[in-house]
């Protein structure tokens, strides 16, 4: 039976519900952008939807929340790199377009962890793992990421904080 997979694997059902929430939100935003004739926003929302659908087609399975966040992070990073290249190439109007797309993509992601939250998570992770040497950086990173679950974290910032805490 097709409808019973949620009973067998509640995690799969929760993943599908979370996925549907993002896809529903994207679909709703796409319709709003069409009605408002906002071509820039519409193009970006369509691009997000296409990326999610491509992932589903490529892997032949539903994308989970972590996969969605990874995909959206990748898209944001691409927009930032493109904006930098356009600025270096003397095309500020295209750089601004890329940055606007990046901000719109960010609006679909959870809130970023604050500096204080990252510091607290690193301190708690150090205390929890008992780490004192740089060799144990991986343990502290993993524990800190667990503490910051549900928040968006820049891996480089977290890594720098852990290094500073272990030095």
Description:
Residues 1-15 have low confidence and may be disordered. Helices cover 77% and strands 0% of the residues. The chain folds into 2 domains: 8-106, Uncharacterised protein YqeY/AIM41, N-terminal domain (Hypothetical Protein Yqey, Chain: A, domain1); 115-166, Arc Repressor Mutant, subunit A (Orthogonal Bundle). The protein is mainly α and 167 residues long. 17% of the residues are buried.
Features:
167 residues; mainly alpha; Hypothetical Protein Yqey, Chain: A, domain1; Arc Repressor Mutant, subunit A; 2 domains; 77% helix; 0% strand; globular
Number of helices: 8
Low-pLDDT runs of 5+ residues are 1-15
Overall shape: it is globular
Strand element count: 0
Write the CATH fold name of the largest domain.
Hypothetical Protein Yqey, Chain: A, domain1
Order of helices and strands: HHHHHHHH
Question: What's a concise summary of this model?
Answer:
This protein has eight helices and no strands. It has 167 residues and is mostly helical. The N terminus is likely disordered.
List the helices and strands and how they pair.
Layout: H1 5-8, H2 10-36, H3 39-59, H4 65-88, H5 92-106, H6 115-129, H7 137-147, H8 155-166
Helix pairs in contact: 2-3, 3-5, 4-5, 6-7, 6-8, 7-8
């Amino acid at each position: 039976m097709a409808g019973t997979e949620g009973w067998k694997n509640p995690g799969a059902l929760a993943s599908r519900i979370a996925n549907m929430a993002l896809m529903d939100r994207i679909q709703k935003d796409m319709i709003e952008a069409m009605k408002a004739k906002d071509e820039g926003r519409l193009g970006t929302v369509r691009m997000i939807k296409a990326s999610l659908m491509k992932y589903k087609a490529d892997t032949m399975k539903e994308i989970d929340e972590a996969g969605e966040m990874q995909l959206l992070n990748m898209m944001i990073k691409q927009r930032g790199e493109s904006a930098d290249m356009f600025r270096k190439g003397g095309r500020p109007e295209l750089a601004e377009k890329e940055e606007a797309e990046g901000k719109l993509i960010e609006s679909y992601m959870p809130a970023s962890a604050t500096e204080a939250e990252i510091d607290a998570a690193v301190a708690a992770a150090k205390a929890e793992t008992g780490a004192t040497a740089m060799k144990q950086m991986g343990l502290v990173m993993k524990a800190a990421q667990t503490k910051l679950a549900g928040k968006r974290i820049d891996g480089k910032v977290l890594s720098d904080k852990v290094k500073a805490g272990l030095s």
